[in-house]
Write a structure and sequence with these properties.
Helix content: 55-70%
Oligomer: single chain
Number of domains: 2
Radius of gyration: 22 Å
Order of helices and strands: HHHHHHHH
Strand content: under 5%
Number of strands: 0
Number of helices: 8
Largest sheet: none
């Protein structure tokens, strides 16, 4: 698989942030000023972030311009997060500046950094625990087939109405239970005083 420069830059930036917590402040600031070590890699990573984000922001701005700005999108179907920020009504959100590429780049990075390892960890444990509990997997499949509508042609829909996800109560319960046992952040959530004697067992029913 070819190396992804954005992913590599993100990994190096996160590593640099970690080092900043263990190095004296004056030392990493000096390294940054001189362009040495991990601080040099962080500066290079920031250049990559801005270049890659700028390309997508420019393309998205052009797409929004051609389609026309509609602040009141009733369904939101097909509208991604970047589009939502570009189309923000600044009369209601005066502190935000969607015309500034740096602002949009920071927004993109905030979501990627916050969701990169946490989502990967949560989903890895979730699918592993489903493989160990086929009865739970069967219930989730049954719930999805029952509640998610197909298109009028009988084929699977290309997009999903987010409001339909509210019907998937058991799926939500299974996700909550998976994250209770294997949280992306290091928390202890298997205390018998809180969850009962079966605190270490995977039981989505305790949430449903």
């Amino acid at each position: 698989m070819p190396e992804n420069e954005f992913d590599k830059a993100l990994t190096e930036a996160i590593e640099g942030i970690l080092y900043r917590h263990v190095k004296p402040r004056f030392l990493w600031k000096l390294q940054r000023w001189m362009g040495l070590g991990i601080e040099k890699k962080m500066l290079e990573a920031d250049d990559i972030f801005y270049r890659v984000c700028a390309k997508y922001i420019s393309a998205k701005r052009e797409e929004v311009r051609l389609q026309g700005i509609n602040h009141q999108s009733p369904s939101g179907e097909g509208e991604d997060l970047l589009t939502s920020y570009i189309k923000l009504d600044t009369t209601q959100y005066e502190t935000l500046n969607p015309s500034d590429d740096r602002f949009l780049k920071d927004v993109i990075l905030s979501y990627i950094v916050a969701g990169r390892d946490t989502i990967a960890s949560a989903l890895t444990w979730f699918f592993w625990i489903l493989s160990e509990n086929p009865n739970v997997t069967a219930k989730i499949r049954q719930e999805i087939n029952k509640n998610l509508q197909k298109s009028k042609t009988g084929q699977e829909k290309s997009s999903l109405d987010p409001s339909e996800l509210n019907k998937l109560v058991y799926l939500h319960a299974a996700l909550y239970e998976s994250m209770r046992l294997y949280p992306p952040a290091p928390f202890e959530r298997t205390m018998k005083a809180v969850w009962g004697e079966d605190a270490s067992e995977f039981k989505p029913e305790r949430w449903a």
